[in-house]
Every structure is written in structure tokens, then in C-alpha cells.
Write a structure and sequence with these properties.
With 302 residues, this protein is of the alpha/beta class. The chain has 10 helices and 11 strands. Strand 9, helix 6 and strand 10 form a beta-alpha-beta unit.
Length: 302
């Protein structure tokens, strides 16, 4: 099985749109499994009208818990906590027990040994969920990180692991990954050990800068990179800069997609159940360009 990740150094470049279109086009001749690794804003299930079939809680880091019966309200733990996560009882409360503010607790555990009454312990907490679903183009694995939670890289790894299991069960030929923006831990977890990174960029200075950061990361991870320039006609000067930079870096420019508002309506119609075969024969400029890019991607996977 080959794995292809669509990623971008910044948000808003159109990587999810391209991933969804690629899935629809490739599903005509390949068995697919998809993974949405943008666990902080999982939009691929929306674009492909995914039906959720299973969900499982994802355990994050530990959080301090104070036993209200064992706590004597001595306050020693307050001095141990550097994040002001421990809350004094109010004057009108009968119990002297302290409480933990879950939004401030960093899970460091420094308060545990400070308590002489053994009233504080560290307990695992849920940091999000991992989902499995079905779509018209194949099984989909995705996740949702809880508000204010970290460990998004580990959640991405879990999403990819579930996708791999789905691929083995369905004997899939291709795994398509919709990666998160940026170059942090979630991106590293998304692109590691993939066969091709399709870097989606736009003709702006930030698009160029963040593309270079993504390329540098991919090279450190020994992942092959090809570039797609989306919304290419919005700035000819910006597009020329991207083309020159791609050439200077020795990268392959798979193609360019013009700004095409109809692509959003194409995805909306897919999500409402309209036949993919009907939509793929449309002559919209963006759809035509995307078709050529997807064909180039497929050639590199054979």
C-alpha cells in the first residue's frame, strides 16, 4: 500500500479540497482508505459526507485529582503548584478540601509528593476522540482533539494507526492523508513514513515562506515532495515567485489550479450524495486542473 499526504505550511491553501477531489477521482480505479490528520479542525469528513461507524475516547496526559475526604485543607500543595491550578475552598463551604482547576493543571505531578495525607493522585483524562467512518470513496479514520488539550501528535499517530488497520482489512491500494497545517508535531506525525508529500501552496509571501519550512521538514524525514500551486491566478507576481522557488529547490511542480469558486459547490454536491461520476466530467477550470494533478500523483504511485 502506498501512502500520500496532502499538507501545507499554512492553513487555507485548499489541501482538504484537493484531498477530497483526489479521493473521488482515484476511487474510480483504486481501493482507498482515508485519514484526516487535522485533528483540531477535521473537515474531510464533512467534504466527503462521512458516516461515523465507531468512536473511542483518546486518553491524553494525567491530571491531578484531590480526594475530598482525605484532604485536610492544609494548603501545602499550593506552594508546590507553579501553575495556580489548585483552588482554595470558599469560606461558606463546609468541606476544607481543595480542588483542581482542570484548565490550569499541566499534569506535572509536583503536588502529589507535597501532600502528607496522600490526598492527591494523578489520573488519566480524555483528550479527544478517534472515529471510524464510511464514505462513497472508502473507509475514513479521523479524530477530534478536545478544547485546550495537547498531545495532538499522539492523536494523529492513533488516527494513522486506525487507518492502517482499515487498509489491511479492505486490502486498500492507497492511503490518502489530509494533513494539518504548519510544521509542528501533528505534521511530523502525519508525514513520517509516507511515500509522497503533496505540498499545497498559494501565491503569497506567507505561502512561499511556509512552503519552504514544510519542504525542509520533509527532507529531514526523507519524504519525497511535490508541489501544487493553488489559486494560482490570484497573483501573477506571487505565482512567479513560487515557480522560481520550486525550481530553485529542485522540486516538481505537479500543476496549478486557478481560483475557482465552483469547487466548493462540487464538494457540497458530493456531500449531499450526488454521483461522483457526473461531477467529474464537468469542465470547471479548477476541476480540470485538479484532474491533471491527481493523474500525475497516481502515476508516481505506480
Amino acid at each position: 500500500m502506498k501512502s500520500i499526504v496532502f499538507a501545507s505550511g499554512k492553513g487555507g491553501t485548499g489541501k482538504t479540497t484537493l484531498t477530497a477531489l483526489a479521493a473521488v477521482m482515484l476511487a474510480e480505479n483504486h481501493r482507498l482508505v482515508l485519514a484526516d490528520c487535522d485533528v483540531e479542525a477535521s473537515n474531510l469528513p464533512i467534504a466527503l459526507s462521512v458516516t461515523t461507524t465507531a468512536s473511542e475516547s483518546f486518553s491524553g496526559g494525567a491530571e491531578a485529582f484531590i480526594d475530598p475526604i482525605a484532604c485536610r485543607g492544609c494548603g501545602v500543595c499550593l506552594r508546590a503548584c507553579r501553575f495556580d491550578a489548585l483552588v482554595r475552598p470558599k469560606r461558606d463551604e463546609e468541606s476544607p478540601a481543595y480542588r483542581v482547576d482542570p484548565w490550569l493543571c499541566e499534569g506535572c505531578g509536583a503536588c502529589v509528593p507535597s501532600c502528607g495525607y496522600h490526598a492527591i493522585s494523578m489520573q488519566k483524562k480524555s483528550a479527544g476522540e478517534v472515529f471510524a467512518g464510511t464514505s462513497a470513496v472508502g473507509p475514513v479514520s479521523f479524530g477530534q482533539l478536545g478544547p485546550g488539550e495537547d498531545l495532538s501528535g499522539k492523536l494523529v499517530t492513533e488516527v494513522r494507526s486506525r487507518a492502517k488497520t482499515m487498509a489491511e482489512e479492505s486490502d486498500a491500494e492507497l492511503l490518502l492523508i489530509d494533513g494539518p497545517p504548519g510544521v509542528g508535531c501533528p505534521v511530523i506525525a502525519s508525514i513520517t513514513n509516507t511515500d509522497l508529500l503533496v505540498a499545497v501552496t498559494e501565491p503569497t509571501l506567507s505561502g512561499e515562506s511556509d512552503l519552504l519550512r514544510l519542504v525542509a521538514l520533509a527532507r529531514r524525514l526523507n519524504v519525497k515532495v511535490a508541489v501544487v500551486l493553488n489559486k494560482a491566478d490570484l497573483s501573477e507576481r506571487g505565482a512567479e515567485r513560487i515557480r522560481a522557488r520550486v525550481a530553485a529547490e529542485g522540486l516538481e511542480l505537479l500543476g496549478e489550479i486557478p481560483f475557482d469558486p465552483t469547487l466548493a459547490s462540487v464538494l457540497q454536491r458530493l456531500a449531499t450524495g450526488e454521483s461522483a461520476g457526473v461531477l467529474l466530467v464537468e469542465a470547471a477550470p479548477g476541476l480540470t486542473a485538479a484532474r491533471g494533478i491527481v493523474a500525475a500523483v497516481a502515476d508516481r504511485m505506480t
